């Protein structure tokens, strides 16, 4: 009986060892290509974002209730541990992050060369070279952004980021609309790029699809290095509408600092 038990345990141990070895072989196999997912998780300060009902307080003691946050993610570049880079094709590299849409949080990059990735770069908005290709050069993305409400007009171009809701402040006690849209205004193009190191390597394999999980602090849009008071922009009973002027480049600088990589899933 004991011999039978020992044999059974030995078989189990060998099986576990073989499975472990096979798993290690898969993780070490950097041939072929795979996929990688970028996940955008919006919050305000240290809180998860709840649209419409959550009061979010800035350092200027303004309280925002956010009804909409959308931004264009573009021009993804991945860096391997050996320093080589992989530029995702621009024609496939435009996504609309949308807190209010089920498909607006995760974006899958396909046909990524297998490897260990340690850094990611992406744009917020549509780069000027792409915009200069004209309406026909934008392909299906033009219709996609128009449908998503992220196109001002072809002449004016895209909204790179749309941030909307209501606010109150010590001087504005009735909930008042605010609307912040970044994009091309006059001589300011307001496209920005974000480069982030990964806390652990993203292991792209034919059998592994990593997820890079970003935490986004939306408070930094107006409460980052540059402090923007909505109450100072509340004019003519229309609410605080920031779509140009001196504040927009300052907001663009803030946007590049609102992203961080929280963790990487290698599943």
From TrEMBL:
Which residues are the signal sequence here?
A: 1-22
Coiled-coil stretches are none
PROSITE patterns, per database record: PROKAR_LIPOPROTEIN
Its keywords, alphabetically, are: Signal
**Where's the Copper-binding protein MbnP-like domain?**
34-234
Q: What is this protein called?
A: Copper-binding protein MbnP-like domain-containing protein
Organism equals: Flavobacterium azizsancarii
């Amino acid at each position: 009986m004991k011999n039978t038990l020992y044999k059974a345990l030995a078989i189990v141990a060998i099986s576990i060892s073989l499975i472990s070895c096979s798993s290690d072989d898969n993780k070490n196999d950097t041939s072929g290509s795979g996929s990688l997912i970028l996940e955008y998780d919006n919050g305000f300060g240290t809180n998860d974002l709840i649209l419409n009902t959550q009061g979010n307080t800035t350092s200027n003691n303004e309280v925002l209730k956010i009804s909409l946050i959308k931004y264009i993610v573009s021009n993804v570049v991945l860096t391997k541990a050996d320093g080589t880079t992989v530029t995702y094709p621009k024609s496939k590299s435009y996504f609309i992050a949308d807190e209010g849409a089920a498909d607006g949080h995760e974006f899958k990059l396909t046909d990524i060369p297998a490897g260990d990735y340690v850094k990611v770069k992406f744009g917020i908005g549509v780069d000027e070279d792409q915009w200069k290709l004209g309406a026909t050069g934008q392909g299906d993305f033009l219709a996609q952004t128009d449908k998503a409400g992220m196109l001002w007009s072809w002449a004016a171009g895209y909204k790179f980021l749309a941030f909307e809701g209501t606010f109150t402040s010590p001087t504005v006690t009735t909930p008042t609309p605010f609307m912040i849209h970044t994009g091309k205004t006059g001589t300011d193009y307001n496209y920005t790029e974000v480069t982030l190191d990964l806390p652990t390597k993203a292991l792209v394999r034919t059998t592994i699809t990593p997820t890079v999980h970003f935490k986004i602090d939306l408070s930094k849009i107006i409460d980052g290095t540059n402090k923007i008071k909505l109450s100072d922009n509340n004019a003519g009973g229309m609410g605080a509408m920031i779509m140009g002027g001196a504040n927009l480049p300052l907001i663009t600088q803030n946007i590049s600092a609102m992203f961080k990589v929280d963790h990487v899933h290698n599943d």
